């Protein structure tokens, strides 16, 4: 999609409104560097979507960061937060603001690649200053959700109406035992799903102990050492038998069919209460250094919203794509559109004309991700 075509789409959007899909405001801010007053920028953004206190006061907040791939895998030798990982200063500023807004408990979570060890150790290997996070709030804690950890049992999150691939997911209990669920994502492409934004970030809530390549056959493997390509991406095996098996083992094994549906179903099973997308510095062309043709870019933008689909829709437009594009059209060249699938499940609207954008406009921050 050319810049001219996207601007024409934005102008025409009010003429074709979605009738019933939920919507919520999305805040956009121009932010060129992590060294500036990131806290003040985020504070203004949260005010523009209704105020952070309204969301987190006296509540337990669980923040899913994006730490995809091993921390030892760097792109062009750059710090991970400048390419494909959540930036630690984004996490610290958010924790500080949530503490100030009255949050009772602030948990950072991620299903760490190939380990069930402490999340703090994984963050240290990724060059995060964990002390900076503890300094941002004395309510901060960390949980690696790649296995059960210190919890007693997994929690089953069902998908109302039944899922497209699995009817339910067994997850670490932190994802259910929380008042507010936050997806802290990176603005970037994804080789399988087209874009990695707030919803795709939450594919990482699935534990490798159950959905991993080396998951147990009957019971979870509480010391997973591999990813989730066989079970989720390719469907070459089923999850551990203690958890719900596929609805239809004869359905398509194509990752471009399976993964968008898993992501959309997870957005229904574990709704995102706050989506925060970091596009200050990131990568284009894929989700990590293992993707050929990856490029480091600096869009200089942050997005925030209380509806995952509306926030991801605006973010997709900022990237220079049509959020309602069908399979075969960039960025969804080899996959179905997760945004449309989630919209069909009633999560939110993909219609730009039905989304209130506050702060900067899409036109002002437009940064085409196509090479």
Written account of the structure:
This protein is of the alpha/beta class and 371 residues long. The protein has one domain (3-12, 23-365). Helix content is 28%, strand content 17%. The chain is built from 13 helices and 14 strands. It has an eight-stranded mixed sheet with strand order 4-3-2-7-10-13-1-14, sandwiched between helices. A two-stranded antiparallel sheet has the order 5-6. A hairpin with a 3-residue loop joins strand 8 (188-190) and strand 9 (194-196). Helix 2 (38-48) packs across helix 4 (88-100). The chain is globular and about 50 Å long.
Give the termini separation: 12 Å
Q: What is the N-to-C order of secondary-structure elements (H for helix, E for strand)?
A: HEHHEHEHHEEEEEEHHHHEEEEHHEH
Strand content: 15-25%
Average residue-wise pLDDT: 95
**How many beta-strand segments?**
14
| Silhouette | globular
Largest sheet: 8 strands, mixed
Q: Which sequence of strands runs across the widest sheet? A: 4-3-2-7-10-13-1-14
Which structural class should the secondary elements be placed in?
alpha/beta
Total number of helical segments? 13
User: Which spans have pLDDT < 50 for at least 5 consecutive residues?
Assistant: 11-18
The whole-angstrom Rg is: 19 Å
Q: Any idea how many domains? A: 1
Q: What share of residues is helical?
A: 25-40%
């Amino acid at each position: 999609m050319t810049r001219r075509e996207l601007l024409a789409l934005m102008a025409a959007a009010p003429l074709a409104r979605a009738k019933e899909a939920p919507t919520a405001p999305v805040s956009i801010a121009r932010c060129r560097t992590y060294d500036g007053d990131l806290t003040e920028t985020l504070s203004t953004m949260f005010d523009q979507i209704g105020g952070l206190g309204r969301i987190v006061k006296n509540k337990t907040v669980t923040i899913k960061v994006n730490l995809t791939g091993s921390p030892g895998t760097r792109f062009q030798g750059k710090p991970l937060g400048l390419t494909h990982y959540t930036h630690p200063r984004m996490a610290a500023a958010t924790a500080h603001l949530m503490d100030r807004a009255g949050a009772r408990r602030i948990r950072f979570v991620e299903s760490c690649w190939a380990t069930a060890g402490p999340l703090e150790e994984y963050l240290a290997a990724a060059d995060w200053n964990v002390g900076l996070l503890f300094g941002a709030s004395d309510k901060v804690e960390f949980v690696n959700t790649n296995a059960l950890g210190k919890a007693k049992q997994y929690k089953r999150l069902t998908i109302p109406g039944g899922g497209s691939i699995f009817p339910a997911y067994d997850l670490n209990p932190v994802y259910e035992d929380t008042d507010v669920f936050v997806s802290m994502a990176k603005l970037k492409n994804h080789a399988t799903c087209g874009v990695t934004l707030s919803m795709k970030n939450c594919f990482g809530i699935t534990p490798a102990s159950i959905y991993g390549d080396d998951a147990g056959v009957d019971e979870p493997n509480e010391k997973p050492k591999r990813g989730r390509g066989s079970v989720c991406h390719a469907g070459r095996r089923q999850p551990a038998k203690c958890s719900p098996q596929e609805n239809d083992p004869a359905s398509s094994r194509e990752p471009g069919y399976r993964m968008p549906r898993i992501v959309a179903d997870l957005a229904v099973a574990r709704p995102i209460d706050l989506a925060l997308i970091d596009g200050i510095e990131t990568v284009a062309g894929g989700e990590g250094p293992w993707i050929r043709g990856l490029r480091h870019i600096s869009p200089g933008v942050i997005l925030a919203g209380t509806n995952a689909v509306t926030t991801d829709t605006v973010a997709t437009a900022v990237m220079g794509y049509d959020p309602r594009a069908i399979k075969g059209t960039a960025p969804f060249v080899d996959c179905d559109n997760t945004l449309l699938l989630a919209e069909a499940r009633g999560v939110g609207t993909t219609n730009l004309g039905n989304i209130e954008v506050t702060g900067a406009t899409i036109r002002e921050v437009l940064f085409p991700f196509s090479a």
